[in-house]
Design a protein that fits this description.
The protein is mainly alpha-helical. Helices cover 81% and strands 0% of the residues. It is built from six helices and no strands. The protein is globular and about 50 Å long.
């Protein structure tokens, strides 16, 4: 799946451009595949993958925020912020994770959307991490 995603992403970048929403969504999807792979590795091995994923997701987020004048990409922004929140938890950065979670919670998301469920899970992880730090 990862190799197919990389190939598809090359085509999207060539055909649609790097800042096209479809390309950015596929960048994000590939990063999620890489995160899944990293979950099965030792923390020391996973660190470089997760750091690279974080930077790619931050770049995609910045591009969506730049295009989001009318709020058309709100779900993309919320999804990316949620995923970055999970990365912040993994990196043991509860303040960063809490900030991203708060930003997602402040968005007007449809109550039926899966991002709501993911943000609930993220909040549980953040609370557990905050308890460890006390």
């Amino acid at each position: 799946a990862k190799n197919f995603a990389k190939l598809a992403l090359q085509v999207y970048k060539t055909e649609l451009g790097e800042k096209n929403p479809i390309t950015l969504r596929n960048v994000s999807n590939l990063q999620l595949l890489l995160l899944r792979e990293a979950e099965n590795l030792e923390k020391s091995e996973a660190k470089s993958i997760i750091d690279a994923v974080k930077y790619e997701l931050e770049d995609a987020l910045a591009a969506f925020v730049e295009m989001n004048g009318m709020g058309a990409y709100g779900l993309d922004v919320a999804s990316l912020k949620t995923n970055l929140g999970f990365i912040a938890v993994w990196q043991e950065k509860p303040k960063k994770a809490r900030k991203l979670l708060r930003q997602v919670q402040e968005m007007n998301l449809p109550s039926w959307h899966s991002i709501i469920n993911r943000s609930v899970v993220l909040e549980e992880y953040v609370e557990a991490l905050e308890k460890l730090e006390r």
